[in-house]
Amino acid sequence: MTTVLIVDDQSLQRYAFRILLESAPEVTMVGEAAHGAQAVRLTAELRPDVVLMDIRMPGMDGIEATHRIVAAGDRSRILVLTTFDLDEYVHAALRAGASGFLLKDVRPEELLAGIRAVAAGDAVIAPALTRRLLDEYAQHVPQPVDTAAQETRLKGLTEREREILVAIGKGWTNGEIAAHFVVAESTVKSHVRSILAKIGARDRIQAVIFAYDLGLARPKTG
């Protein structure tokens, strides 16, 4: 059973999500929050598996709420819900620690699948889509990062792990990485787990952002 906290300042939107979650036997809604500060408090109290997080809210927005929840070390994973697929705030939310994003008009079965994926520790955005996403955000949303600290984490990777991190930054799937390096896909998965642990990334998307921040992957030009 996956527990979910809904965060949205629109009561009608919360109602729609609640109806959907109540129809899924494998998901239980444990609470609702109308703004970021309430989301942070309820996440600490209820410890849901997944937080469905809106971005634009009065007071504390979803980005700051995501940052505070992740910084507190809560086990809850954040699934950002946005109105636009190229919303500049999504990149900031992912960097703050969110495990992915979906559009608010996503089909019910896709939202439920996304919740299950995030609860299982996966990223909602498919690897094949991360390149298009980050090509947009890397060009339009520059963010200050502590590259010195990231360089230190990068040094902990083996040569092969660094090569695979570059491939992840390019948006390659595990299958594509396996074919390129002529290794089993299970070997790639093992490398990816090791990379995530060494660089302190919660999931694959955080690894892509890490690669972009250090210039290991570059947005398309022209």
Topology (elements, then pairings):
Blueprint: E1 2-7, H1 11-22, E2 27-33, H2 36-46, E3 50-54, H3 62-71, E4 77-82, H4 88-96, E5 101-103, H5 108-119, H6 127-140, H7 147-155, H8 159-169, H9 174-181, H10 185-199, H11 204-213
Parallel strand pairs: 1-2, 1-3, 3-4, 4-5
Helix pairs in contact: 2-3, 3-4, 6-11, 8-10, 8-11, 9-10, 10-11
Query: What name goes with the CATH superfamily of the largest domain?
Result: Response regulator
Q: Return Rg in Å.
A: 17 Å
Secondary structure class reads: alpha/beta
Strand order of the largest sheet: 2-1-3-4-5
On the 0 to 100 scale, the average pLDDT is 83
Whole-number tally of structural domains: 2
By DSSP, the count of extended strands is 5
Main sheet attributes: strand count, strand direction, barrel closure: 5 strands, parallel
Count of helical stretches: 11
What oligomeric arrangement do these chains adopt? single chain
| CATH architectural name of the largest domain | 3-Layer(aba) Sandwich
Low-confidence stretches: none
Tell me the distance between the termini.
47 Å
CATH topology of the largest domain: Rossmann fold
